[in-house]
Amino acid sequence: MKDNNINDVKPEQGEETKQTVDVQPEGIQIEEVPAKETQQAASQAGQAQIGLLQAMFIKKKVLKTLPIYKQHKVLFEIKDWVSSIIFALIAVYIIKTFLVWPIAVSGNSMNPTLADKERLLVTSYDVRFGSSPKKGDAVICHYPGRTTKWLGIFTVKTDFVKRVMAVEGDTVKRVNGVTYVNDFALDPQHENGRGLGSRSGIRIGGTLARVGFTYTKDVEGNLTYYYKGNEVNLTDEETREVYFDYEYTLGKGEYFVIGDNRYNSHDSREWNGPDLPILYTNDVSGDVGPIDKSMISGRVRRVLLPFKNGRVVENDPTYLYEDHKN
Question: What's the domain range around 206?
Answer without folding.
Answer: 99-320
